[in-house]
Every structure is written in structure tokens, then in C-alpha cells.
Specification:
Blueprint: H1 2-24, E1 49-60, E2 68-81, E3 85-96, E4 99-112, E5 116-129, E6 132-147, E7 150-161, E8 167-179, E9 182-191, E10 194-204, E11 214-223, E12 228-238, H2 244-250, H3 260-269
Antiparallel strand pairs: 1-2, 1-12, 2-3, 3-4, 4-5, 5-6, 6-7, 7-8, 8-9, 9-10, 10-11, 11-12
Keywords: Signal
Signal peptide: 1-20
Protein name: Cellulose biosynthesis protein BcsS
Length: 307
């Protein structure tokens, strides 16, 4: 009996010592899982935003082209559609060659601001060319790819109009953000007017100046048929305060329709939209002017104006 009680006491003492040792050990902290938030969580469009731009410049062409100054105004409004989609409306107007040109365009797209944009685009443009009223419509796929400080943007689709053949076209731009607020870009397009290249720069003023929503830009164009142009202007952005690179990836896509006026000028420079003059040596008489049976001598003489 005494031995049994002694054994029980030993067991209890050992258990108490073990418990005391466990309590004396430092507790290992447990860190709860925290979701990692990356750029992929951003909306396709950060919120309702817009921009207005004004520009002026000068265009040159071949010997039959009347060199002239031109000006344009354009505006865009972009809005989110849920988390992953967005839409944008563009309106533009310009004066060139003493005529007015206007355009309306629309974008509907999916976008991940850290990766890419993919959507559809359509616009319409109208002006008065030397040959008469000119109307153009375009429907295209639109895409953008974001690679660190490089952005690749393009639209490619079909164009049609009253003075052009229905055909494919492409307009592509590569942009390098030397800083968050300085964009240098180069572009190329192929459409009814032929090939045209362009290059430019856009700089957003520092937020510390109180003008952080204002950007200055300049652009030069060179195309077929001796066409060339230079322009400069100002853009005013509306929406959240952010860098220029973030504006272009989180807010509004490119306003593609502002390039159509340059294509029209290039086509005029190439004589495509110009009335063809009647040749001075073209006969104006018909076989009936000399009688039914005899061949009219005036119609065999290229210099004759009447029988």
C-alpha cells in the first residue's frame, strides 16, 4: 500500500514538472494570412475621367498641294463598366484647307492595367475635299500591351467610304516612358492614303506646380506623296491626380480619330481626292456631228473643239 502511494506521488510530480516546462517555453507567434494586393486588382478604368486637347500646326505637300496651317480640338470621356471592362467616347473637330472636319469614335474594352487592353473600336469622319464631300467609317480591333515602361498600342480593321475602296487598315504606336510623366512615341499607319509615320513627345507638368493635370505635346508626321506636318498643343486631364503613364494605362486609351485629318491631307497631296481636269487635247464632238454615214473629221483631230 505504501509502495503504491509512493509510485503515484512520483508520477504526479513528473507530470507537474513536464507541464511547468511547457509553460516556460516561449510562444511562437502565428501570423494570419493577409491577401496580397497587386496592380491586377485595379479596375479597367479607375473612375469617370476625361481629357480635352487643343493643337495647331502646319502641313506641306507636293507641287499641287496648297501648304496651310490647321488647328484641332478634341475631347474624350472614359468610364468603368464593372471591374474588368470600360468604355470611351471621343469627339474631334478640325479646320484645314479652309474646311471643317469632324469625327466621333467609341471604344469598348477589357483591360488589366498591369498587363494589357483588348477591345473593339469604331469611328466616323467627315469633311469637304476638293473632289466633294468626303465620308469615312472604320471598325477595328484595339489592343495595348504594357511592358514595364514600354506600351504598344494599335487598332486594325476595315475602313470604307464614298471616295475610298473598302479595305483593311492599321495604326500602331510604340511609347517609351522615360519618366513617369514623360512619354516619347513613334507610330505608323497604312490606310487609304498610303503609309505615314509619326513621332512625338508628351510631358505632364509636375503636381507641385498646381498644374499636374496639364500636359504639353508635339508631333511630326511624314508620309507618301510628299506629305509632312508638324503640330503642338496642350492636353488637360480630368480625374484622379496621377502620373502620365498611369493615366494612359488606367484611364483613357488613345484618341485615334485625331489622325484621320492627316490621312485626308496626304490623300489630297497625292491627287486621290482632287477632281481630275479634262485634257486640253480631248475631242468634244461625237460621230453624229458629221452625219450618220461619213466619219467626222473633227473627231479624228485631237485639237478640234467642235465640228
Amino acid at each position: 500500500m505504501r509502495a503504491t502511494m509512493l509510485a503515484g506521488a512520483v508520477v504526479l510530480t513528473a507530470a507537474s514538472a513536464a507541464n511547468a516546462a511547457d509553460l516556460s517555453r516561449p510562444l511562437v507567434p502565428v501570423t494570419p494570412a493577409v491577401p496580397v494586393v497587386t496592380q491586377q486588382a485595379l479596375d479597367a478604368v479607375s473612375g469617370l475621367n476625361g481629357k480635352i486637347e487643343g493643337a495647331g500646326g502646319y502641313e506641306w505637300g507636293d507641287k499641287t498641294f496648297r501648304d496651310h496651317a490647321f488647328g484641332r480640338l478634341a475631347g474624350s470621356v472614359a468610364m468603368p463598366i464593372g471591374h474588368s471592362f470600360g468604355a470611351q467616347l471621343d469627339v474631334a473637330g478640325e479646320t484645314a484647307r479652309g474646311e471643317f472636319g469632324g469625327a466621333v469614335g467609341g471604344h469598348l474594352f477589357w483591360r488589366n492595367p498591369s498587363f494589357a487592353l483588348l477591345g473593339v473600336y469604331a469611328d466616323g469622319y467627315t469633311t469637304k475635299a476638293p473632289k466633294g464631300d468626303f465620308n469615312l467609317g472604320r471598325v477595328a480591333a484595339e489592343g495595348e500591351l504594357y511592358l514595364d515602361r514600354v506600351s504598344l498600342s494599335a487598332i486594325a480593321g476595315v475602313e470604307y467610304g464614298n471616295m475610298v475602296k473598302t479595305r483593311g487598315f492599321i495604326d500602331a504606336v510604340a511609347s517609351l516612358y522615360a519618366t513617369d510623366d514623360l512619354r516619347v512615341y513613334a507610330g505608323w499607319r497604312n490606310d487609304f492614303a498610303g503609309n505615314q509615320g509619326r513621332g512625338g513627345v508628351e510631358y505632364q507638368l509636375p503636381a507641385s506646380t498646381g498644374w499636374g493635370n496639364v500636359a504639353l505635346f508635339a508631333e511630326g508626321r511624314v508620309g507618301e506623296h510628299g506629305y509632312a506636318a508638324g503640330l503642338g498643343g496642350v492636353k488637360v486631364y480630368f480625374g484622379q491626380q496621377k502620373s502620365l503613364m498611369r493615366r494612359h494605362r488606367e484611364d483613357d486609351p488613345d484618341t485615334w480619330s485625331t489622325q484621320t485629318g492627316g490621312a485626308v491631307a496626304q490623300a489630297i497631296s497625292g491627287g486621290q481626292l482632287v477632281k481630275k481636269k479634262k485634257k486640253p487635247d480631248e475631242p468634244t464632238c461625237t460621230p453624229g456631228d458629221a452625219g450618220r454615214d461619213a466619219p467626222p473629221p473633227c473627231c479624228t483631230d485631237k485639237n478640234a473643239r467642235a465640228c
